[in-house]
Specification:
This protein is mainly α and 226 residues long. It has helices at residues 6-35, 40-63, 65-68, 74-93, 97-103, 106-119, 122-131, 136-163, 166-184, 187-193, 197-225.
C-alpha cells in the first residue's frame, strides 16, 4: 500500500527544502562574487546557467558521494580555487568598471561558478545524500530545488555589493575562511598532518589576511597609476 509512505515522502521533501535553505549561503556568495562585474543581463544569465550546470554535476557527485569525498587533494584544490577567486574579485573591485568588465568574461564567470560551487558543495552533498535515503528521485529533487534558492540569493548579494562596495571586502573575507577551511580539512592534510582545530583556524585566518592584503595592494597600485 503506497499510502503509509506518503508522510515519510513529505517529511523527506521538507527536509531537503530546509537543507537547501541552510546550506545555500556560501555557494550563493561565491556565485555573486564571480558575476559581480558583469552587466545586469549577463549577470542574471550567468547565475542561472552556472547554478544549473553546477547542480547537474552535483547530482552525479551525490550518487557516488562516499567515494568522491574521500579522494585526496579535491578539497585542497577547491580551497585554493576559492581563495584565488576572492583575490581576482579584489583585483576587479580595484579597477574602474569599464576595465573590470573587460577582464571578467561571461564564459569565464560561468566556469568559476561551476567549479567553485562543486568544490564547495561537500556539505550539501552529504546532507542531501543522507536525507534522500538513497532515493535517486529525491536526490534530483533536492539538488534541483537548490537552483532557485541559489539564484535568488546570488542576485540579492550581487545587488547589495553594487550598492555597498564595502561588502565586497566582507564577502572576500568569508570566501577566505571557506577556502582556508577546505584546504585544512582535505583528507590528505588530515591523514599526514592531523591538524588540530587551532591549526584550521590559523589557515582560515591566513587565507583571509592574504585576500585583504591583495585587495589593499591592488587599491594602492591603482592609486599610483591614476
Amino acid at each position: 500500500m503506497p499510502t503509509p509512505h506518503i508522510p515519510r515522502l513529505v517529511f523527506d521533501c521538507l527536509s531537503l527544502v530546509l537543507i537547501d535553505l541552510l546550506l545555500a549561503g556560501d555557494n550563493a556568495l561565491v556565485i555573486a562574487m564571480a558575476v559581480r562585474t558583469l552587466s545586469p543581463r549577463e549577470r542574471r544569465i550567468g547565475i542561472v546557467f552556472g547554478a544549473a550546470g553546477a547542480v547537474v554535476l552535483r547530482i552525479a557527485i551525490t550518487i557516488i558521494a562516499a567515494q568522491i569525498l574521500t579522494v585526496e587533494f579535491i578539497k585542497l584544490a577547491g580551497g585554493l580555487l576559492v581563495v584565488w577567486i576572492a583575490v581576482k574579485v579584489m583585483r576587479d573591485a580595484a579597477e574602474p568598471p569599464a576595465e573590470s568588465a573587460v577582464q571578467r568574461t561571461f564564459m569565464r564567470a560561468i566556469g568559476f561558478i561551476v567549479v567553485a560551487d562543486i568544490t564547495m558543495s561537500t556539505d550539501n552533498v552529504l546532507a542531501i545524500a543522507g536525507a534522500s535515503r538513497g532515493s535517486i528521485p529525491l536526490i534530483i529533487f533536492g539538488l534541483g530545488l537548490s537552483i532557485p534558492f541559489i539564484v535568488l540569493s546570488s542576485n540579492v548579494i550581487a545587488v547589495v555589493m553594487d550598492r555597498y562596495p564595502f561588502t565586497v571586502w566582507l564577502g572576500a573575507a568569508i570566501l577566505g575562511r571557506v577556502g582556508g577551511e577546505m584546504m585544512a580539512t582535505d583528507p590528505y592534510i588530515e591523514r599526514v598532518f592531523h591538524p588540530p582545530q587551532a591549526a584550521v583556524y590559523a589557515v582560515e585566518a591566513a587565507a583571509i589576511a592574504l585576500i585583504v592584503a591583495a585587495g589593499r595592494f591592488f587599491r594602492h597600485d591603482r592609486f599610483h597609476r591614476s
